[in-house]
Amino acid sequence: xxxxxxxxxxxxxxxxxxxxxxxxxxxxxxxxxxxLAVQQAAMRRASLQEVFDAVTAGAHGLLGDEIGSLRLRDRxxxxxxxxxxxxxxxxxxxxQSWRMPLDGCGAAGQAILRDEVVVINCYDHSLNxxxxxxxxxxxxxxxxxxxxGGTAIGSLSVASRRPGxxxxxxxxxxxxxLR
Length: 179
Hints:
Helix content is 39%, strand content 25%. By secondary structure, it is an alpha+beta fold. A hairpin with an 8-residue loop joins β7 and β8 (177-178). α2 (18-43) runs antiparallel to α3 (48-63). It is globular.
């Protein structure tokens, strides 16, 4: 076991420059702000929809891409996913994709099926993408499973329309980061 106070361990996990330190602290502040917004919605006994919307807006804002969504398994038919909340998704696309088969629901469905973070780059050429999103210009998507008691009951996704935008998942336990 390594002591995190050993200089070698610190240098491997610490930013190399003051600018990187500022960026790291800024992203941590943003994360805390997003978590606080969700916590405040829950504490003021907001509707479940308001809490879902706060989570979705938080993921969208934190990662900085155009679309954020929360999809949950249908309680009456767990092979189907329902769009519980969307941020930045055109209404037409939301209506077209509000209820979809788990295995045909892009990164969101794959994250649940595989119970891990899933990244789809080159979304418009992927066999796993949602056609309506690809037709709307989505270039990349990333989804993480949402669990209840250890069971994946849904997924939280972000997607980007920006050309050349790629998503990358590089550490277990983290949702990943954009480059």
